[in-house]
Amino acid sequence: MPINLRPHSSQPLFVEEAEYERLVKRAEGRWSHCTDEIEWLAKLHYLREGYRAGKLTEQQFDERECRLVQAWLGRDAG
Question: pTM of the prediction?
Answer without folding.
Answer: 0.90
